[in-house]
Amino acid sequence: xxxxxxxxxxxxxxxxxxxxxxxxxxxxxxxxxxxxxxxxxxxxxxxxxxxxxxxxxxxxxxxxxxxxxxxxxxxxxxxxxxxxxxxxxxxxxxxxxxxxxxxxxxxxxxxxxxxxxxxxxxxxxxxxxxxxxxxxxxxxxxxxxxxxxxxxxxxxxxxxxxxxxxxxxxxxxxxxxxxxxxxxxxxxxxxxxxxxxxxxxxxxxxxxxxxxxxxxx
Length: 217
Known about the structure:
Elements: H1 4-17, H2 21-30, H3 44-51, H4 53-77, H5 85-103, H6 116-126, H7 128-145, H8 148-166, H9 172-188, H10 190-197
Helix pairs in contact: 1-4, 1-5, 2-4, 3-4, 4-5, 4-6, 5-6, 6-7, 7-8, 8-9
């Protein structure tokens, strides 16, 4: 049920998701806007690429927490039974709000990241088993290829199958959400797909790279 209180909490979830972790860390500690280098977005991957692991790790953790917290916010404010369809629906509304915040952050001109780390936090909060399976798929592909983008794309296709078959979900909104993840990951990775097809996609490294980072990465 949509209530004024729930609308307020949806806004809070969006504002939490909007926290531009990489932009603020980059500007405060390195005097750099990570969006001006590398892939041009403010995700954890680009932070690793531009600033290295010392900045990338906290950005990754906070971005994951943004997604996790948005889902748990629904658990905290509602009186719905755990696992009920009503609770899952509310969790997904808050999750989408946080994800849109990460992709279109109000604090920094609506130029955000691709949402993969925040999605990981969301899935961790929704179903730990599904998250661990998806993370396992990501790690296997990443270790084999060193492409974060390709790993994310493959996981986005795997996740609906995890929800439908591994989780055996009977909540329609959860199945729809899993397919929504595939769509949004594909949309947000269009340029990466083009670079992968033309063999111009850059592989992730963990050393510090700032002014030397190529704009074409």
